[in-house]
């Protein structure tokens, strides 16, 4: 049986290794938000939030210090920071649609081997919310999806074709899960990294499309 | 006569919001950026068959205390806050045009989810950036535009698809209103507006996108106090300004 | 023979009588610019300039006080004024195209009885400039053209059809010239006011389309 | 590594402007709002076959002294000013996309008028608001939009006409560039920009509308000195910043 899966913090840490100096990064709700805790110390990036701020600081943990006029798209209080800029919503999405966001980190319900992403309609709900995720999925220069490799009840989430309605077709570049890191390529999904103790067979057994093994296949670096 | 856009009360400010009106309601998701007093005044007026354009579907008065409690360890939401979910709860909604209509948890239902399920209201779901751009197009006199966002998804339904630079785009029409109800920080008598922090959001976008824009502000300052370089919404986009009290009264009290 | 024609200042004075409280007004180059000198004392209006200012003050007359960073679309130095706002060019034309300009006062080379305006290509030039005049002519709520009734060499300028290329079709609401004030109506041009000493026949002789005489036809008020 | 977009010289800032590039050049008509040092650097580099997008056709070095003399009683133009007319005079223009290409008097010819007459350059004439909106569309990822401005005029030539709300509209495509050369007042190392007065004009519009935006500024200030609420161009729209000297040297001296 496979080893333990990574926890959310560790998945966020792995995603944050993709942050490169000077990048403009948008983090979706949930695990993506946690990535802001793991920016490598020698890297300076600017976070964008759909509701109109760029270059804000960390999430405020003490409600006494929180200000309802300084929040991110997940309605978490954000700290002000030197160099931060503020703008209205059409400008904020000019940034997204215009390709000015270098990296979007999004959650996912399903991802296909073509990089299709489905993450806006929760199973069993009649109505879902597109929010800003669709714009980001279509237009960010690079899209990383971070999510559990399977659902809590063991359903596969990485599929040949998504069964849930799409957020955007062929938009995902990299998938980071609690067991693996996979790149979406024209040839298919390339397994690049695995959680400690996992084998490629074990990852494959939780993944519908056939995984291509990277010649550089290695354990996920956790430091 | 001197230009003076300041109106004495919220009830007066929305007195001409008629049945069937289209309202663009500012805000994003939290209480900081929501024109609560204007929404409450529309609830008191009772205008019906409204089309409401906004980001969220609206928490309403039943769900908001639950959300407030959930958020307690992160941020203190003022208990008197109301959003346009109030109008949905009171049956004033005919059609909602929203980006984020459903509750963030399957265990909750936003008022608009109920209203749609019961066949009492229609819903148009719009990607957030497309929503913002459609509103901006109305302000800017652009009839429609082609966006790369949405082909191959639910957003494509009923839309013209056209290729530009080898990539499919959707034709999206302008989305203006009869009234924009927005929240700002300070105003002057010309209707010049500044916002505070992330409260600019859809408020800044909706200013000027309706026939009448009404701004709910913390303070009206003397002409000239707002630095010309720092005015975010030039006064020609706002027709009325109302000052909000420091503490919100219950929504059903005249204000 | 007809009496004297009005001078440019007097034409501007007449146009300024159209200014109503609270109006957003854009003044074109030339005679329109002069209108800012004649805002009625009990009327507060805000001037818009295409290059990105609203609610600016008077044209500065002393070059010592002029600031090259505060100009109008005619590159004249403008004074700062309480309540003035500044913005970039796309926003400035959102105001124009979006119908937020109540009144545009433009110069004209030719105006037709349908209210077509031609003012962008000078006779004899191979290349003309559209500038912001086309946007204003199409989109301002009301358009007043102020110009000499005929050219210096006696050519008619108010025509059945413009012979010069159009700035915008059917855009002009009111024509103020050095001899008359005429409204553009679905029935045709209505002669409303004449310069002192002029007769309707004399105005008609300088005007190609048939003028309809207003029942309220009167001399141009010059005070 | 700290983000730092400040480049040491104008020559370095434009070193990768290649033959055939499309340049959006900020400014409106006067010297205050014109990125003179960046233009001079492109002239020194000598890049050819350029497509230049801007408001004016450009005075150039022959006509500017005449204009300066004419304006003398109204406003003092600095004698060292150059605009993109310099590039036209030097034969670097292949195509100009302008709103105001001709001289304001029939007695004068702008360099682009000469170049077009001599068959050395092409000209695309665009209404000013359409020009601004096309540039903004490029920044905003909008492929094309329908504007009510232009049907029944020269602006309609070659354009799709379509009815919206009973009114004809023209389809206008986005207009982006390889480089936006703009003038701003202050910057910080993130590329956040503020402008001064009416110098914002096309400079603020063009920021972000090209692959590379280069801002010519009076001053670079410490991060945090620009108030977040007052930043006009957020830093992600500017890739390079160069400080301009208080007094401009002759255009052909390295800078």
SSE layout:
The complex is a heterotetramer, with 2 copies of chain A (223 residues) and 2 copies of chain B (255 residues).
Chain A: H1 8-16, E1 24-27, H2 31-34, E2 46-49, E3 53-54, E4 85-86, H3 89-97, E5 103-106, E6 110-112, E7 117-118, H4 133-139, E8 142-146, E9 158-159, E10 174-176, E11 180-185, E12 188-194, H5 200-205, E13 212-219
Chain B: H1 10-13, E1 22-25, H2 36-45, E2 50-56, H3 60-71, H4 85-89, E3 93-100, H5 111-117, E4 122-125, H6 128-140, E5 144-147, E6 161-164, E7 167-173, E8 177-183, E9 186-187, E10 193-194, H7 201-206, E11 210-217, E12 219-220, E13 240-243
Parallel strand pairs in B: 1-2, 1-8, 2-3, 3-4, 8-11, 9-12, 11-13
Antiparallel strand pairs in B: 5-7, 6-7, 9-10
Strand order of the largest sheet of chain B: 4-3-2-1-8-11-13
Cross-sheet strand order for the largest sheet of chain A: 4-3-2-1-5-8-10-11-12-13
Q: Which blocks of ≥5 consecutive residues of chain A have pLDDT under 50? A: none
Order of helices and strands of chain B: HEHEHHEHEHEEEEEEHEEE
Using the alpha-carbon principal axes, give the shape of chain B: globular
User: What is the straight-line distance between the termini of chain A?
Assistant: 25 Å
Note the main sheet of chain B: 7 strands, parallel
Largest interface: A-B, 49 and 58 residues
What fraction of the residues of chain B are assigned to beta strands by DSSP? Answer: 15-25%
Mean pLDDT of chain A: 95
Using DSSP, what is the number of strands of chain B? 13
Total number of strands of chain A: 13
Q: What average pLDDT do the residues of chain B reach? A: 96
Query: Whole-number radius of gyration of chain B?
Result: 18 Å
Shape of chain A: globular
Description:
The complex is a heterotetramer, with two copies of chain A (223 residues) and two copies of chain B (255 residues). In chain A, 16% of the residues lie in helices and 23% in strands. Chain A has helices at 8-16, 31-34, 89-97, 133-139, 200-205, and strands at 24-27, 46-49, 53-54, 85-86, 103-106, 110-112, 117-118, 142-146, 158-159, 174-176, 180-185, 188-194, 212-219. Chain A starts with 7 loop residues before the first helix and ends with a strand. Chain A is of the alpha/beta class. Chain A is built from five helices and 13 strands. In chain A, strand 6 and strand 7 form a beta hairpin. The model of chain A has no long low-confidence stretch (mean pLDDT 95). Chain B is an alpha/beta fold and 255 residues long. Chain B is 22% helix and 25% strand. In chain B, the strands form three sheets. Chain B has a seven-stranded parallel sheet with strand order 4-3-2-1-8-11-13, with helices on both faces. A three-stranded antiparallel sheet of chain B has the order 5-7-6. The longest helix of chain B is centred in the middle third of the chain and has 13 residues, at 128-140. The two termini of chain B are 27 Å apart. The mean pLDDT of chain B is 96. Classes of the chains: A alpha/beta (223), B alpha/beta (255). Chains A and B meet through helix 3 and helix 4 of A and strand 3, helix 5, helix 6 and helix 7 of B. Strand 5 (144-147) of chain B pairs antiparallel with strand 5 of chain D.
